[in-house]
Structures are given as C-alpha cells and as structure tokens.
Design brief:
Helix content: 40-55%
CATH class: Alpha Beta
Number of domains: 1
Number of helices: 10
Structural class: alpha/beta
Strand order of the largest sheet: 8-7-6-5-4-1-10-9
Number of strands: 10
Largest sheet: 8 strands, parallel
CATH superfamily: Dihydropteroate synthase-like
CATH architecture: Alpha-Beta Barrel
Distance between the termini: 18 Å
CATH topology: TIM Barrel
Strand content: 5-15%
Shape: globular
Radius of gyration: 17 Å
Length: 276
C-alpha cells in the first residue's frame, strides 16, 4: 500500500475521534458543555489516545448522527479551530478535521491540519475548491440525504454498486478540479443513510472498495449496526467495534476511525503478528 501525505499505509492505521459537540451519538458533551470547550478533558483524552498508538486525531464540530440538526459554519468554526490550535501546541501528531465547510477547510489548513474528512464528499458550495487549494489529503464519504433525514427509509437499487459509483464520481470530480490522485481516500459511510442490511452488504463487499486503489477508511466504531447485529440494545458496543475493525483491517482497509483506541490498537497488533 502506498503512502499518502504523511500517513504510512502499509498497514491499517488508527484515527482517534474527538467530537467537540454537545450531541454526537457516542461522546457528545464530553468535550463541550454550555458552549464551553473542556480543554483539560480534550488534552487528557488525546494524550491517552496517542500513548495507546493512535496515528491521527480527527476533530469535528458538527454532529452527523441520525436526526442531527445542521450547525452554522461560524458555530462549527468556533468549536474546531481553538481545538486544532490547542492540539498543535501540545502534541506532535497528525490532525484531521471532520468538516464539510469550505471556510473551515481553509482555516484548518492554515493552522496546520493534515487531513480533511468530509461526510458530504466535498459537495457543499466551495468545499471542493477549498480542498484542492489546501493540498491536503481528503476522505470522500458516502451519505444518502442529510443527517436529519438520512435514516428515514433509505433506498438503493444495489447498495454496493450505488455507493461505489457515487464515490468514483466524486473522485473524478476531485481529479477534474486539480486534486492529486494520492490525496484521495474513500469511505462507504456505514450508518449514513443505510439500514442494517445495507451496512452488512457494504461490509461484505469492502474488497471492491479496496480494489479501486484508493485508500479506504472505515468508521463503524460504537455504531447502531453493532447493537442490531447482536440484537442487544445495550450501549456497550466495544466487542462489536473491535471485531469489525479487525475484519476491516484483514480486508486491506487503510484507516480505522475509532473511539476506543487502546483496544483497537491491541487487536490490530495481534492481527499483524499472525501469519495467514
């Protein structure tokens, strides 16, 4: 597997999640409350992620959980930029920004972000141009509709073909706009406008996404599909998250976006030492 930017992709790399939002599905409110950013909590959490072996930290300021309301760009900006500046000051690590905003893409690049992670695949006005100008690697994620309504009866003629076609079309749009091929990552978007059946079909077909030659990111950590697969409403989804992470790594996925960094790193370390 080639390298892209400064992320060595010879094996699955770990992206730790930091959501500076009050309403994200797993860690909403952990790092911001009543509009105030909890810098001590962020620093402790990121430090523990890096000690555990995270390769990149992904910072987001807009919840994209099912049913979430959109966040104004200035509000998102005020959450994310101070955290990026804080982390650049305290840690020598790669930083990703989870955003669809052209304004935030530009500012993130200017303060030293290394990666753009966009669940809307650069479809918001100006986002594609901003990403090309930034010269940063970008993850193009598939999402049907918007977070507010994406889980209301999602429909596909063939979920694997439909999602793959969309990602390749967005890849072509990026190339046509002047983005270098080695800056493009793709993500099937598990849980973004998909039923459990859709998610399972996509996961079983992950090889088709890897076979495009573009690095694949998978984010299934703690998601509802795990509880549905186990027929267990419990919020304890660690075992399912780790299992899917290992399966994805076995299939050649380049980056695993996770909340539970230590456990995932340990599982991937075991996988890497077993000769199949």
């Amino acid at each position: 597997m080639r390298e892209s930017g400064h992320v060595n992709l010879c094996k699955a790399r770990i992206m730790g999640v930091i959501n500076v939002t009050p309403d994200s599905f797993s860690d909403g409110g952990q790092f911001i409350k009543n509009g105030r950013i909890n810098t001590d909590s962020i620093l402790r959490t990121v430090d523990s992620m890096l000690v555990a072996g995270a390769d990149i930290i992904d910072v987001g300021g807009e919840s994209t959980r099912p049913g979430a309301d959109p966040v104004g760009v200035d509000h998102e900006f005020s959450r994310v930029v101070p955290v990026l500046e804080l982390l650049k000051t305290h840690f020598d690590t790669l930083l990703s920004v989870d955003t669809s905003s052209a304004k935030l893409i530009r500012e993130a690049a200017s303060v030293g972000a290394n990666f753009i992670n966009d669940v809307r695949a650069l479809r918001r006005p100006g986002a594609l141009e901003a990403a090309v100008e930034s010269k940063l690697p970008v993850c193009l994620t598939h999402m049907q509709n918007q977070p507010k309504n994406m889980q209301i009866e999602p429909f596909y003629l063939n979920v694997v073909s439909d999602v793959l076609t969309f990602l390749l079309e967005r890849k072509d749009a990026c190339l046509a706009a002047g983005m270098a091929p080695d800056k493009i990552f793709i993500d099937p978007g598990f849980g973004f406008g998909k039923t459990l059946e859709h998610n399972v079909m996509l996961f079983r077909a992950i090889d088709r996404f890897v076979d495009t030659g573009f690095p694949v990111i998978v984010g299934v950590s703690r998601k509802r599909m795990i509880g549905e697969l186990l027929n267990d409403p419990s919020e304890c989804r660690l075992i399912g998250s780790i299992t899917l992470a290992v399966l994805a790594a076995q299939r050649g996925v380049s980056i695993l976006r996770v909340h539970d960094v230590d456990e995932t790193v340990r599982a991937i370390k075991i996988l890497s030492q077993i000769d199949f």
